[in-house]
Amino acid sequence: MATILIVDDEPGIRDTLRGVLEDEGFDVSTAATGEECLKLAETEHFACILLDIWLGEGIDGLETLQMLREAGDDAAVIMISGHGNIETAVRSTKLGAFDFVEKPLSLEKTVVTVKNAVKQRELERTNRQLQTDNANEYVMVGESVGMRALRKQIGIVAPSDGRVLISGESGTGKELVARAIHSASKRRGAPFVEINSAAIPEELVESELFGHVKGAFSGAVANKKGKFEVADGATLFLDEIGDMSPRVQAKMLRVLEEQRFEPVGSNAPVKIDVRVISATNKRLDDLIDNGNFRADLFYRLNVIPFQIPPLRERVEDISLLVEHFNRRFSADNGKRTKMFTEEALDALRMYTWPGNVRELRNTIERVVIMVSKQKILAKDLPEFGSGDEAPASSFRFPSFKAATDAYQREYILHKLAEHDGNVTKAADEMGVDRSHLYRRMRNLGIQAK
């Protein structure tokens, strides 16, 4: 049960409150002065502190409250006074007091106030823990040039209200970037509302975005708020915007221009204040050329463009991502952290990851759960892709640079394997200077053994 601290210079009040609260199941400690309160708070964790404003000699209750907050104590504090006035109550609230009660105390009311304070503080602590868990869930891992530039761009863009369009292949982490922008923005205390246009039937997208009124269509048995209204004062993440129908695109354009809309079946406008972050894995310029996406909507959404690099273009981040997912899924499944050998990491670096970080994440989760060994070798990894085709012989690369890097990575790894990891011998056979080979290995994310 929660522990309560009663701070009052009157022994009778301390004893009475202690008896009542112990009868309610609380553990109770008492103090007669502010100094004694501060000393107890250093060594014990209290859910709630009942603190008298007038404490006789020494520091008063308001000073005690201020010093508690300066020390980082997050206990819910209920101020008690026999000489209450509005000014004192306001000052108590500004200093972080949960509530203010006056003498003579109503024991019934005091018990209710304490229970509410404890419940509120537990909710706040749970919320902070959830925020910490979310931060760990959506952490951005990687020290490649592309990732460092991405984090820098997020830091610059996040404090503004500018609309952001995030482009990148499936699995690169577009939602992760959107959440990072929201978390660093002035709207971070408000919800992060998301909707995936590709995951909702076309006939329901408009209702999901803008809401509807009762009777607007068959099945609309009650009024429903859409995502735009839910995100008022917050951030709305529109994923896969390239899949929006022309009708929804037209209505979306008006919302962005006017910051208002009408729910389906209604003529009454709803005014909103929403920051829109959108994402797509398609080439919107191609969709515009084909007449499948409105150019004016594109310009409205694309105020600040973000381009997320695919995993094959930041191979040097793979070992960091493996370590991150290894620790996370080991902890989630109550297992010891695996040790991925260098040959296993080399195999992971050789693969081109068409599913990007999402595919790597799923691969490491599978290894953590399914492989009983602690030391992971290349042979312990699941088969990549749908066949045995070597990465460098694939025609799926989107650019000449990506194909060239994949071929060079495979070639260098084979030469190193032939010479048991000896870089000097491998460089001699390849006909290149050793320092040049080291540089190329570093650029391709290949570690010397």
Please describe what this structure looks like.
- The protein folds into 3 domains: 129 residues, 3-Layer(aba) Sandwich (Rossmann fold), CATH 3.40.50.2300; 164 residues, Rossmann fold (3-Layer(aba) Sandwich); 132 residues, Helicase, Ruva Protein, domain 3 (Orthogonal Bundle).
- 47% of the residues lie in helices and 13% in strands.
- The protein contains 18 helices and 14 strands.
- The strands form 4 sheets. Strands 2-1-3-4-5 form a 5-stranded parallel sheet, with helices on both faces.
- Helix 1 links the parallel strand 1 and strand 2.
- It is extended.
- About 2% of the residues have low confidence.
Q: Any idea what the CATH architecture of the largest domain is?
A: 3-Layer(aba) Sandwich
CATH 4th-level superfamily of the largest domain: P-loop containing nucleotide triphosphate hydrolases
Helix content: 40-55%
Number of strands: 14
Structural class: alpha/beta
Q: Regarding quaternary structure, how should these chains be classified? A: single chain
Q: CATH class of the largest domain, anyone?
A: Alpha Beta
Q: Mean pLDDT, nearest integer?
A: 88
- Count up the domains: 3
Termini distance?
56 Å
Name the shape in a single word. extended
Strand order of the largest sheet: 2-1-3-4-5
> Count of helices?
18
CATH fold-level label of the largest domain: Rossmann fold
Poorly predicted regions = 386-395
Short précis:
47% of the residues lie in helices and 13% in strands.
